[in-house]
Amino acid sequence: MPETKRKTTTSTAVKQRYIDKTYTEFRAKLRNEDFAEIDAFIQSKGWSRADFIKKAYEIMKERQP
Fold first, then answer.
1. For the chain, first and last CA: distance in Å?
2. Rounded to whole angstroms, how far apart are CA atoms 17 and 55?
3. DSSP the chain
4. What pLDDT does residue 1 have?
5. Of residues 37, 58, 38, the one with CA closest to residue 48
6. In 22-65, beta strands by DSSP E
7. Given this model, what pLDDT does residue 8 score?
8. Tens digits of per-residue pLDDT, 4-44?
9. Whole-angstrom Cα distance, residue 19 to residue 15?
10. How far apart are the C-alpha atoms of 20 and 36, rounded to whole Å?
11. By the 8 A CB rule, do 13 and 5 touch?
C-alpha cells in the first residue's frame, strides 16, 4: 500500500478560528492629528499598537488610588 504524504500546512480557516478564540479586537476612533502623534511615538519606541495599549494600561493600574 503506497504511503500518502502527510499534510504539513495549516489552513487559513483553522488559523482564523484560533485567532477568533484567543484574541479580542480593540478599536477606537481618534482625530487624525492625535493618531499621527500617537503612531509616531509608538514607532519611535519600536512598539506595536498592542504593546502601547498594554503599557498604557500598566501605567494606569500603577496610578490607581
1. 71
2. 27
3. -PPPPPP----HHHHHHHHHHH---------HHHHHHHHHHHHHHT--HHHHHHHHHHHHHHT--
4. 60
5. 38
6. none
7. 72
8. 777 777 899 999 999 999 999 999 999 999 999 999 999 99
9. 6
10. 29
11. no
pLDDT by residue (tens digit) across 48-60? 999 999 999 999 9
Instruction: List the grid coordinates of 42.
Output: 509608538
User: In the prediction, which pLDDT does 16 show?
Assistant: 94
Hunting for cell 519606541 — which residue is that?
Answer: 45
- Which grid coordinates belong to 19? 485567532
* 3 pLDDT more than 80: no
Contact residues for 42 (Cβ-Cβ < 8 A; gap 6+) = 48, 49, 51, 52
